[in-house]
Design the sequence.
């Protein structure tokens, strides 16, 4: 097996924001976070040298990988011959995954590049009808933010929108020493498991808009941060508008969206 040089890894990290996992036990532990229920395909994002991939290939599931770095793709093609037909040399954020999955369900897993990790989550949320499970490694503070509850200082847009559709679990912390090159911060592994009933009792597009607008001015009360929605005076008198966004649970944000939706109809 031909191994990549450290120079290539450093270059890939520089341009792709990627830190290559080198600890086999951590890779195996991450691979074991997927439950293999409700889908027959798994997509690994940014496999690099395949340290996580090799453990996915041992499972009773069809493994696909998507990688933008040409040298990484060449390495995988040369060293994982059985995987070769399922290596997608594309940008995950720009590629239409239904070219591969044709509407079928699939899980997502990976050691996600720090610089696009939140964008990966948002794209997964857009495809929530096809993604029953999502697990992987983020910068620790991002993983904590996704899993945090109302009242936390890190509770925000990602927390509310991810937890509106998924149950979020922070699983374990990973130190910098298991990467090449080592990042300057700890990493965190999480799992998102889609809720049994993930169809919301509100306009979902409006929910996204309400949450994003509210947290853009998180220190203000909702009465002030949501002014652009042209709410009626009667609605603004509701006690919920005297709160700040981090005080609202996911369920409260859904109720808030319902209120705004109904106000617009009156």
Sequence:
């Amino acid at each position: 097996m031909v191994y990549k040089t450290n120079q290539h890894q450093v270059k890939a990290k520089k341009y792709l924001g990627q830190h290559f996992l080198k600890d086999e036990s951590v890779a195996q532990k991450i691979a074991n976070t997927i439950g293999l229920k409700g889908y027959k395909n798994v997509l690994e994002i940014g496999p690099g040298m395949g340290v996580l991939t090799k453990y996915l290939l041992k499972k009773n599931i069809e493994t696909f990988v998507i990688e933008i770095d040409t040298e990484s793709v060449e390495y995988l093609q040369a060293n994982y011959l059985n995987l070769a037909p399922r290596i997608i040399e594309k940008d995950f954020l720009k590629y239409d995954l239904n070219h591969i999955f044709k509407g079928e369900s699939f899980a997502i897993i990976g050691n996600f590049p720090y610089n696009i990790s939140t964008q990966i989550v948002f794209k997964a949320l857009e495809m929530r009808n096809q993604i029953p499970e999502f697990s992987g490694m983020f910068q620790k503070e991002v993983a904590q933010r996704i899993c945090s509850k109302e009242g936390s200082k890190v509770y925000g847009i990602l927390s509310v929108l991810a937890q509106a559709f998924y149950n979020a679990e922070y699983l374990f912390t990973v130190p910098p020493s298991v990467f090449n090159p080592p990042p300057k911060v700890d990493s965190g592994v999480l799992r998102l498991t889609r809720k049994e009933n993930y169809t919301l009792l509100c306009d979902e597009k409006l929910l996204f808009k309400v949450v994003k607008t509210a947290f853009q001015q998180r220190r203000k009360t909702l009465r002030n941060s949501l002014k652009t929605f042209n709410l009626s005076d009667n609605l603004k008198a509701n006690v919920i508008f005297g709160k700040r966004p981090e005080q609202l649970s996911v369920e409260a944000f859904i109720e808030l969206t319902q209120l705004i939706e109904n106000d617009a109809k009156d």
